[in-house]
Design a protein that fits this description.
about 375 residues, mainly alpha, 12 helices
Length: about 375
């Protein structure tokens, strides 16, 4: 019997071995090419920096050991990478009690619940409660769609695991050179992410294995033409589908982002931290003006307002001058070097003016 839901993942499972055999050859060549570039670049830097023989020997030994370890990962990728994913699958099987993820089985569970709902609505009662009939038909349709979404998520994740273990080996060839090593790092993070998605799906499918029988019992013991019953099953099926769709994806994305933390991510975090510290320092410097500066500005504003005879016009002028004074003090506190440079230039200009005036008086 043709099983379309399981036949697609099975086809990708067969292609996995073919992909690995072809791409491992190219990954191997790429690895040695980049390893040569890495060692050559390191030797050039050692010469430019005029390193001693001992330093060059130690650096070369570290580089060879590291490249050797990375090549071991590439050489054993056909065993090690699937083993990582299989460890998550084994943990999910033991925790959930589900022996294998079967998209078709999940799909047929939804179809069975929908057929039961429609069967219980059949009878003369449909002519008395047409609204309940329409609600039940719509709820049955949504139940089928919800379980179809879960089955599709299962199938996609299984296909994803076959691709990452078969075709992903090519990305390990980038590990030998420091400039491209982030590609391999992110691939390994992606492997862990797929494993976590499979683990989460095992837990969710195992936890929801009793939902269909419970809904069937509810259908048998209640009146399906009472619209609240199909709506209750509809809401539960939708919630189950959303959990199976979102939780594994979020967990996998979180793991991928954590494991695949590369140079650019670290650099971005460092820049952000630097900006935060600088902002805090500026705020602290500006805060150094203190309440005394604010009080002085307020006193200046009152004095100007009184000098203008009070009233709305005097208050507005006083507020304007007080704000200007605070702005000047804030700039001076935030950029002290610029402020001091401006004062020095002003003093020099004043000295030059006084000197010119003195020279003019001498003549």
């Amino acid at each position: 019997m043709l099983d379309p839901m399981n036949s697609v993942p099975a086809q990708f499972a067969q292609l996995r071995t073919l992909w690995f055999g072809v791409l491992f050859f190219y990954a191997n060549r790429l690895f040695f090419l980049l390893a040569t570039v890495e060692i050559g670049l390191g030797a050039l830097l050692w010469v430019v920096q005029q390193q001693g023989v001992e330093a060059i020997g130690a650096g070369l030994l570290k580089k060879v050991l590291w490249i050797g370890f990375l090549y071991a990962v590439l050489f054993n990728a056909q065993t090690w990478i699937p083993a990582v994913i299989d460890s998550f699958i084994q943990a999910g099987q033991d925790a959930s009690g589900v022996k294998a993820l079967n998209p078709s089985e999940v799909m047929w569970q939804g179809i069975g619940v929908a057929v039961k709902m429609l069967y219980e609505m059949a009878g003369w009662g449909i002519f008395k409660n047409f609204t309940g009939l329409l609600t039940g038909i719509f709820a049955a349709f949504v139940v089928v769609v919800s379980f179809a979404v879960i089955a599709i998520e299962l199938a996609v994740t299984l296909i994803e695991s076959y691709i990452v273990t078969g075709a992903g080996v090519f990305l390990l060839g980038f590990a030998a050179f420091r400039g491209t090593a982030a590609v391999s790092e992110r691939y390994l993070g992606y492997v862990v992410a797929v494993g976590i998605k499979l683990l989460a799906l095992y837990l969710i499918v195992g936890g929801g294995a009793t939902l269909a029988p419970e809904w069937g019992k509810l259908i048998n013991e209640t009146n399906m033409l009472n619209y609240w019953v199909p709506l209750t099953i509809l809401g539960a099926a939708l919630l189950y589908a959303v959990v199976a769709w979102r939780v594994p994806s979020v967990a996998g994305a979180l793991a991928s982002g954590t494991v695949a933390l590369g140079f650019h991510d670290v650099l971005g975090a460092t820049v952000m931290a630097t900006r935060t510290v600088a902002g805090a320092g500026t705020a602290a410097t500006a805060g150094g003006m203190g309440a005394a500066t604010v009080a002085s500005a307020a006193q200046l504003g009152r004095a100007i307002a009184q000098g203008q005879g009070g009233g709305w016009r005097g208050a507005a002028l006083g507020l304007k001058e007080a704000g200007s004074a605070l702005s000047r003090e804030a700039v001076a506190a935030a950029v002290p070097r610029l402020h001091r440079a401006r004062q020095n230039i002003q003093r020099q200009a004043a000295a030059i003016t006084n000197l010119n005036n003195d020279d003019g008086h001498q003549f």
